[in-house]
Amino acid sequence: MSTPTINIPGYKTGTWAIDPIHSDVSFIVRHLGVSKVRGQFNTFSGEIVTAENPLQSTVTATIDAGSFHTRQEQRDNHVKSEDFLHVDDHPEIKFVSTGVRQDGEDFLVDGDLTIRGVTKPVTLELEINGFGQGPDGSPLLGISATTEISRKDFGVHGGAAGAMVGDKIQIALEVEAGLKSE
Questions:
Q1: Could you read off the pLDDT of 11-54 as tens digits, one per residue?
Q2: Is the pTM of this model over 0.90?
Q3: Which pLDDT tens digit goes with each residue over 54-110?
Q4: Cα–Cα dist 112/59, whole Å
Q5: CA 138 to chain centre
Q6: Could you tell me how many helices (H) and strands (E) the chain has, helices first?
Q7: 76 and 83 in contact (C-beta within 8 Å)?
Q8: 93-124 in b/e burial notation, b at 16+ Cβ within 10 A?
Q9: Which of 84, 123, 126, 155 is most exposed by smallest CB count within 10 Å?
């Protein structure tokens, strides 16, 4: 039995550094069951290694949990507190991939997500937006990824306010990465 060939236009192997200036880590959660609150993390870093066989590629990422914001300071401070993210004791959110699978034209990236010191498996739905070049000719990689998690699975209970916030958190990533010098 042969392995099907994966054709990704412009595919380039190497180690890529996530560019936080041209990337976004966002989330959406229900509030009071009637609306959705959106937010972002401002500070994050990561590395993508594209292998000869794309299914052997890897991703690692670290998010500064304290860089959380929703444009409302009181809410942001509460989410950073012990009731939710508890950033004083758990300053980082981490993702480490454990495998890549093809899903039609797109890919699934399995990995371990750690929030608040709790590690759980998650699957990111990955869209490869393309390989290209920056204005200076440097190689770039663009991807989008989404997943949904249960905050309670990670010990994010929310205290008394937890009843006002949905359990499901939609996560959306827009990533631009530059090829590291070899």
A1: 999 999 999 999 999 999 998 888 999 999 999 999 999 999 99
A2: yes
A3: 999 999 999 999 999 999 999 999 999 999 999 999 999 999 999 999 998 889 999
A4: 11
A5: 24
A6: 1, 11
A7: no
A8: bebebeebeeeeeebebebebbbbeeeeebbb
A9: 155
